[in-house]
Each structure stands twice: as structure tokens, then as C-alpha cells.
Amino acid sequence: MRLILHIREMQSWSEAERRAGKRVALVPTMGFLHEGHLSLVREGSGRADRVIASLFVNPKQFAPNEDYRNYPRDFERDRALLEREGVDILFHPSAEEMYREGHHTHVEVEKLDRFLCGAFRPGHFRGVTTVVAKLLNIVRPHVAIFGTKDYQQLQIIRRMVEDLNFDIEIVGQPIVREKDGLAMSSRNAYLSAPERQAALCLHRSLKKAESLVRHGEREGGRILSAVKEELEKEPLARIEYVSLCDPRSLEELESIRDQALLALAVWVGRARLIDNTVLTA
Ligand code: AMP
Q1: CA 151 to ligand 1 centroid distance, Å
Q2: Atom 14 in ligand 1: residue holding the nearest Cα
Q3: N or C: which end of the chain has fewer CB within 10 A?
Q4: Model-level pTM greater than 0.85?
Q5: Going from the N-terminus, what domains does the chain have, and what CATH number goes with each?
């Protein structure tokens, strides 16, 4: 696996691969990798001849009060994990390289960023779409792989790629969970042992909603109450939002007709955890 730190070098490597007729996949990450990230890498390997994993903790998607500085980092471990997965290129630019002095261009996907996490993290998705647009232009992959763990992010990226005519296939991959159901996340590293236990309430609450729907419940209000009740049983958890919405437009739903996204963000200690499930009537 080759480590590339500079944009120009990344561009010319990709250009050469494309010219040689190779199909290129990109897996963007912020590092501190876990099985969720690796599942994206494996999907990329199955879909392309070359796999590039990017590792960039993007300052633009963190608000000043958020955890940019303390975001978990372990470059050597990440490098070893990607090497073991057979990744061809680890692209790891610095923040200075990505945002040169005088950088004033941002990509904003309107509307979809008003809901869910976007309502609580102003500017977050503008940072995400800006960096993803840059990565797509730098790497020029044929396909880019993302997780549905960040469901809203995936929808926003799909919208951006469609609206701005990026000729790139966007693939969403299912949430990878720990054995006990906790969605894998780099931020799980923030959890103490009791908090780790408390964090199981997210998955438990989603399971409860799934079970209600399986037994015929379609009423949004009742599903949301049941989910909140489950989360509120856990004294270490603090709900940021619980939302039942249309899986495409992300607009709130009163009831489930065919499919609904149930998405939540819950604070446990200093970790802001998100999780979701698509409920099918
Ligand atoms: P991050 O490093 O948190 O920015 O995540 C990089 C990519 O990995 C994003 O597309 C995430 O949606 C995806 N991802 C993160 N956690 C998981 C997970 N538990 N299962 C599947 N994909 C994930």
C-alpha cells in the first residue's frame, strides 16, 4: 500500500490508473478505523480494480464547540488495518493542503440539511459536502462507498452528486454493529465502561420500534413515544432527537405507509451517538 500525502500526486496516480482502464473506488474516512470502515473497503474491493481509502479529519465539519481536537486518532493502526485489507492507496492529506490560504468555496445541499443532525449541527453538512466534493475531484473515482450509519450524510451526498453531475456511483453499505448491537463508531472510544453499557439503549429502542411495526403499529406518534420511553429508561443517556421521516426527503412522517427512517442522536457522556433503521410496513 502506498501512502500519498499530496493532492497533485493523488491526482496523477488516479489519472494514470484511469488511463490504464482500471476502475477506481474511494472510501472516505476520518480514521480510527473499525469493522464498519473495513466493510466499506471490502465493498470497494469487490467493485473496482483499485481501492483508495482517504483518512482526513475534516476541520470544516466540526463546529468550534465540537470534538475536532480530541477526535480519536491512531494513524499507524489505521495504516496497518488498511494494508491488511489490500488497499492500494492511503490518501492522507493535511488540513493545510486541503484548505490552502484563501479557500473560500463551499458546497451546500439545501433542504436536506435542515433535518435530523443538520438541525443540531449548523454548518456540519456544508463541511461534509465541501470535503467530499474535493475528494471526488482529487481522486476522480468511478465509485465511492459510504455507510448508512450516517444516513443523512449519504442522502446529502447522493443529492450533491446528482445535482452537480459528478459521474460517480455512490454506494451505501449497511451499519456494522458490535455483537451486542451497538453501532460501531470511532466515537465509541469516548465511552467509559458504564457508558458503553448505557449506549445499548440506542439499538434497543430501534429494535422496539421494529417490533411494534412488525405487530402492525403504523402511527408515528406512538412509535416515537415508545422509542423515547426506552431511551429515557437509561439515566446516562440524553436524547438530542428522535425522528421518523421519509427515507428520501427526510421530512417528518405522521405515519408509516411503506417505509420510514427512524433516526436518533443520543448523548452518552461526552459521546454523541447516532443510529437508525428503516422501518417497513
Ligand atoms: P467516519 O470515519 O466516521 O467519517 O466514517 C467514514 C465512513 O464509514 C462513512 O461513510 C460512515 O458512514 C461509515 N461508517 C461509520 N461507522 C459505520 C458502521 N458502523 N457501519 C458501516 N459504516 C460505517
Answers
A1: 10
A2: 147
A3: C
A4: yes
A5: 2-173 (3.40.50.620), 186-280 (3.30.1300.10)
